[in-house]
Amino acid sequence: MRRLPRAAWLCALVGGLSALGWSLLTPPFHVPDEVAHVAYVQHLAETAELPKLNGQLEYSPEEQQALTVTEFYLVVGAPTARPPWTRWQQRGMVNLREVPKVGTGTAQSATNNPPLYYALEAVPYWLGRGGSLLDRLVLMRLLSVLMAAGTALTVFLFLREVMPAAPWAWTVGGLAVALQPLFGFVSSGVQPDALLALAGSLVLLATARVMRHGLDARSGAALGIATAVGALSKLAFLGLVPGIALAVALALRRALAGRRRVQGLRGAALALGIPAAAVAVYALASVLVWDRPLFGADSTTGTNPAKVAATEVATGSQSGRLSYIWQLYLPRLPFMDDQFTASPIREIWVNGFIGRFGWLDTTWSAGVYRAGGVVLLGIALLAAVGAFRAARRGAFAGRLGELCVYATLVVGLLLLIGAAGYSARLTGGTFEQARYLVPLMGLYAGIVALAARAFGSRWGPVAGAILIGVAFGHDLFAQLLTVGRFWA
Amino acid sequence: MRVAIALGLTLVAVLVGVVAALSAERPRLAGTNNVFDSFPSVEIAPGQEACARHELVPGDTAEVRVHAEPPDGAGGPITVRLVQGGREIARGSRPAGWGEGSLEVPIQPGIAATQPDVDVCFAHEGPGRIILWGYGAVDERRTALDGQELGERVRVSYLRPGRESGWDLLAAVARRMGVGRGSWIDGWAFYGWLATVVGALAVVIRLTVRELHA
């Protein structure tokens, strides 16, 4: 195994510092759904049992107390409201009466999530046992910060695999991810998206290695473990499974056609068997031990993506679902009913990626989103130029299968998000958020790196430096925006 | 060298933007009671006084702001009193001619240190009515109209003196960021955040200059 470059570790350090900064400036519970995720961790850590939906709405008395003293429900979603910030209010938070740490066992929208992320978070929870819940929250957030650092490292290594001819581009892409503010913000809280982002990047890296170096026991096991981690982190990861399966199928076909049949078969068995076993154990434990649904609900809306994929929602239609999913990502076709009041491409994906923070209550002005959209469009166009130049150099020769795998990973995730979004729409909810794309941060890094490479080997590093500077500015301004929202 | 210049120029542009953003002066919050100002909440007829009771008035308060509406034409003169334990601790007034929206009333003397359990009272002599916006009360902190407690609570915000830039507010932000974070972070949250920004910048510069070459 190749030694990890120092630049990779430094990208990880930047990613960790950015996420750490976000965790320090963001008040407790003001990362999306952090309230529910903390409840899950607490219940698991205190009772060694997974939470269960029971019709109750209140969390543990200790968490309810913390939410009350921090005035969470008065501040969340209200951009003109502020968390407590006077020393008089701080005195009221010290020496609170001891209240039970175990409630009815609900974690509301997070309840049916797979347990891996929460089991990992139980460790810092227990390490912080001597402090208040707010103290434990600090430690739990640090674990997510470490995951962010791991994602930045993994993305760097992914670029090392797919762009071997331009080492400078690995740093450009790695830092683009490390400094992406939506990624940093989401990874700063108690939020399984942090592990989902890491798992997605590990899958990209493992997939790239399988496609480029062949399938054997080692590469298959790596892909299998990454897939298992993702599958047990958040159900949204299921969107990546078709792409993973395609990668294994293509790599196995190549192995069978060559002289590596045994290695290929071993690799395929591990790549598919490890996650299958992990999911099977989780499914059996869910039904037999924890008395939970076989396939849990998505953490954000309670929508069950597995059920959505398998059945038709009673009041919806397949054509409606297809139209909805199409319009979520592409311009509406003339024969389609308009499913959205505003362009979701702009409002959800572009503006969301530029950044909405807090519980989507911390936003830029319209002018900033327009300017940011222009920048993103510019990067996309430059990336297309970079890809064209790479194709002319023969960089994609023999890589059609690999490109199809990445495309399938993307399409699979987008379809899953769209299907879940349609179901949520039928019940009056809204589901889609740009943060659900964090498993694909490695591909975003690739796009930024390609954009820099559009300028060739002489000026490409210069363009990369500018992109890195812009990324740093984006992250810094996003943090200042959020500081202003909560503390000014 | 080209890479260092490109990065340097980009970061200088970022720095210029940060300085410009932080230099903008505007009225700044000392605090707010976080009541949703979602609905017309309390109607004050001429000669009546409505008091937002049991308010926590933050230190450095020089103005009181409410969302007010004069449904009968332009708003008449309005008086604000801050009463704590039966004693008036500050008072202010706003002359006639204001319209619907944010209504700021400067008070004298300013409130230097945070004061708990204060009644913030609004009175006017007409012409016409005044409506203050807010929401339903959920605890004992209610609004009273001429001493009669209502089931409503008025949104009140408190403003610092004058107009301040982000630089002027830095010390206050540093203090505020440590509140409600638990005892382990406490007062160093702001400084920790600042350190991450500086640290990330240093690593980004070093990494970019070292690694980005043809």
How would you characterize this protein structure?
Chain A is mainly alpha-helical and 488 residues long. Chain A has helices at residues 6-25, 34-47, 61-69, 72-75, 87-93, 116-127, 133-162, 167-178, 181-186, 193-213, 217-231, 241-257, 261-289, 305-310, 318-329, 344-355, 366-392, 400-426, 441-453, 456-487; strands at residues 356-357, 362-363. Chain A contains 20 helices and two strands. Chain A has a two-stranded antiparallel ribbon. In chain A, a hairpin with a 4-residue loop joins strand 1 (356-357) and strand 2 (362-363). Chain B is an alpha+beta fold and 214 residues long. Chain B contains three helices and 13 strands. Chain B has helices spanning 2-23, 166-176, 189-211; strands at residues 29-32, 39-44, 49-57, 61-69, 78-84, 87-94, 101-111, 115-124, 130-136, 143-145, 148-149, 152-154, 156-159. Classes of the chains: A mainly alpha (488), B alpha+beta (214). The interface between A and B is large, with 71 and 61 residues.
Write the layout of secondary structure elements.
The complex is a heterodimer of chains A (about 500) and B (about 210).
Chain A: H1 6-25, H2 34-47, H3 61-69, H4 72-75, H5 87-93, H6 116-127, H7 133-162, H8 167-178, H9 181-186, H10 193-213, H11 217-231, H12 241-257, H13 261-289, H14 305-310, H15 318-329, H16 344-355, E1 356-357, E2 362-363, H17 366-392, H18 400-426, H19 441-453, H20 456-487
Antiparallel strand pairs in A: 1-2
Helix pairs in contact in A: 1-7, 1-8, 1-20, 2-6, 6-7, 7-8, 7-10, 7-19, 8-19, 8-20, 10-11, 10-12, 10-18, 11-13, 12-13, 12-18, 15-18, 16-17, 17-19, 19-20
Chain B: H1 2-23, E1 29-32, E2 39-44, E3 49-57, E4 61-69, E5 78-84, E6 87-94, E7 101-111, E8 115-124, E9 130-136, E10 143-145, E11 148-149, E12 152-154, E13 156-159, H2 166-176, H3 189-211
Antiparallel strand pairs in B: 1-13, 2-9, 3-8, 3-10, 4-7, 4-9, 4-13, 5-6, 5-8, 6-7, 9-12, 10-11
